[in-house]
Structures
1.
Amino acid sequence: MAENQKGSSDFMDEDGGDRFPVGMRVLAVDDDRTCLKVLENMLRSCQYHVTTTTNSIKALEMLRMNRNKFDLVISDVKMPDMDGFKLLELVGLEMDLPVIMLSGHKDKELVMKGVIHGACDYLLKPVRIEELQNIWQHVVRKKIDRKDHNKTSASIEETSNMAGEGSHGIGSENNSDQIIKVDRKRKEQSEEREEDDDDDNRAEDEEPSSQKKPRLVWDAELHRKFVDAVNRLGLDNAVPKKILDLMNVEGLTRENVASHLQKFRLGLRKATQQGNQVATAFGGVSDPYLQMGSADGYRDFCTPYGSRRISSTTLPSYASGGIYCGLNSPSGSTIGGIGSSLAQWRQAQSQNTTNPINLVRNYQLSMFSANQSSSLLPGTPTSVDLNRFQQSNCTTGIRQVSPFDNSNGFTLPSAFPDHKPAIGKTNNSLFGLSSNHLLFQGNLVPPTHNSGAFRNHSSLGSSPVNTETFDTGISSSSNVSEYNERWQSTAQLSNFPSNSLPLNEAFDSNQLPHNSVKFSSSTSHIGNSPADFSSISDNAVPLEDALGELNCQGGLLGNIIQQQRWEDHKQDYSENMSNTFNSENSLSFPNGHNSYLGHSLNQNNTVDASLVGQMNDARMKLNDACILQQMTSQEGLDQGNFAYLDDIISEMNKQV
DNA sequence: ACGTAAATAT
DNA sequence: AATATTTACG
């Protein structure tokens, strides 16, 4: 009756309860073929789905191989190779399935042994069908026990899920909480499945009595909490348990956190490593972009939706591009702002992360290295690191849940309720970035003068945008509007789901708050490309985020980032920078949409490879600088470390 | 309780 | 095939 299977999977559910015993999947084990046959027939008559085998070892293999494919095991006690007790023991250990022992002897000892080993019942041989008709109760009992256990051990929030048992316990509905469900043990699986007497295969229904823990997905919100917790604890004290407490997420287990922490640290490590590599190649490598892409394991860098990449072979070094990373100057009012406590920063961060846009960005941005972080402040992960991790996630995250893909049930608006700017302005002052803007200056960037340049242009649907203009390399004298148009289109094309809200609108510079980090690049006069590209993501983005932003923009548009503060020192570092900053004509560029540009670019072979190379450099340097900046801020060593920053800048200048 | 590595799931 | 998560273990 393989047909009944269907029902068996639901039998536990409220609704499926009606037919429950019918189709219950039973594995009968007995070395005595005759007895087995008899048993089988009786079980069948009870409407159970029966699978039989005369070999206990084989039985175990079958169970291991078909986890969740059996609801109950009924086994003879005395068997060669492996007796029923052993089987019982292993089953109990590995799959927590109800096991009924069968024996021709009623020795108290044996019965006791069976019970001790976890047998849920001990039947004496000859078994009467009446006895078998009720064995399903053990399945139910088991299930109930498990349920209770879970509830006590970890507050499983989804009682409903529990009821459903087999259902998946992750309520992704509310981004904030995840639910973990029943746990089970998993084991190795031997791959062979053998003959048995009759059928054995099952369709893969889901929830018999044993099942694995549902996979927890670390969505942005959850991760945000995680990062927040880690931040609060400090990387050194951030241990699973503490993090778990801080996160305060129902159903989340320490293991979950530990696991995530593991990955997190790994990401951190990689990041730093990568950073070092980059540092090494600082002046030479022409295509760090690609290197990073494959070297650090973060594939699809900036191209979460696409796979096309720019060929490294076509990446000549970029001569005219340069990067100026003038994080806030060591002097100036900003510094005062920097005084904000880490706590504040954290708050800001969390707030920020809460922002839909940021979230999106996080998902999209790729992570970049921050080499110096470790060397400068050993053991003191910087927020950049954390961010980096987040970013790394985005790459993969996108795969699972695209923030832009409504089909995933991931809804930006609802998922990220507005948070009151408890810290308001403080928010951005974190790293002295408050009220400062990161200026993006690049010679390759298209000129823009309309603040609304990046607004949605629905017309762009899905058709490929002409991006020949991206070939700008250095020449680019194409007219501004055209550029804008293209950028817009391109960006949009890949960025905004047709039905999504025009995030752009939200970021219209006009509507943006002041204290946010901004990226603005204005006409660049460096080299000979009068290109001008300015973007402002004015959304109270903490440095961390700003970094991400920069990474993307810098990487894609390849250019220079500068903070307003930079002005103070621009002369010292670069003449080119002068008067290149005007955040006025800048257009708002929605956070996180930069990567799309990259994507678009990638899709166009027309992109000037050199640009990419340069962008990478820029990005990396920017990173370094930012990190430094960050560290400085955190450590209050602004002045002291500034020298370093200078170096970085000088380095960048050289390139230019 | 931790952290790391192996096992699995996607 | 590469990652992300879950488990097993010391």
2.
Amino acid sequence: MARSTIRKAPEIDIDGLLGKFETFLQKKSLKLTSQRRQILEKILEMDKTHFTADDLVDQFRNQRPRVSKATVYRSLSVMVEADILEEHQFGDSYKVYELSEGRPHHDHLICTSCGKILEFFNADMEKLQDKVASSNGFHPTHHSQKIFGICAACWGKGVRS
Amino acid sequence: MARSTIRKAPEIDIDGLLGKFETFLQKKSLKLTSQRRQILEKILEMDKTHFTADDLVDQFRNQRPRVSKATVYRSLSVMVEADILEEHQFGDSYKVYELSEGRPHHDHLICTSCGKILEFFNADMEKLQDKVASSNGFHPTHHSQKIFGICAACWGKGVRS
DNA sequence: CTCGCTGCAAAGTTTTTGCACTTTA
DNA sequence: TAAAGTGCAAAAACTTTGCAGCGAG
């Protein structure tokens, strides 16, 4: 049976990311500002596989000159376009981001008790998705698959919902 | 090969729905108010497989006494709890609802060009999802799978993104 | 007659925008 | 130095809530 896998984010190289970002920005006649660089650094420093815009705003709360909320939001959009970040909408009202750099496509298992997010990749599932799309006349561009449930740890503690 | 299917919503029976709703409300010591009844009626009248809270608010715009926005939102929550409606968060910032009554579980294909939503069900996919969850120690409760792409019609018009 | 429900407007959350000023290329 | 970016505060978009009166059981 094809094994589903959980991976740890590989150690990430800021220079590689910056290079990729710069290439994108140049192509679009956009600029690599100090703020954009700082945001990228904070994303790596935080070392969270998934974070929100607000997590990032928090990082700058006690810093001056502070990077503003508006800039954080604007930069996140640019980074998503640059394929530096992936944007997800899990159950909640806010968006969740993760680095896409060096990380193959994957989907998510979300624990509805503790909020833990596990990543998985299953090749059979990917094939099946393409099959479903094309048999309905769709030309798939991307997908989002989330499986909600109770993780092993919570289940062990007796949580059942 | 297991065929994926697209279904039309079956003709829906208001009395059945109301009955189910009442049973739920009684169990929870909640009340079947005229507004809740009207909202359920409008949902059926609209005859949309997927609708938003705002679609529903619109239905009451030219009616008096008007059913308020707050009541619409509050009722949608109750109906989700009662398993009368399913709530989805597709790519956008607002929630999308659909009747769950009499409709087996299914997932969605979403056209990023025209917004069309197709439903599908694929038994192999469901099995695979359970397998992935349990092999990661998860006890799955539900899932959300969305495949984004260009539908046949848009593709025919030359849309490629 | 007691809770739960309603309408309204106000407040909450997350994200976006207008504008004068600053910075990158 | 021109075009793009920034900070700030205000606005937008969607949803929730406080409260005083209303209505279902």
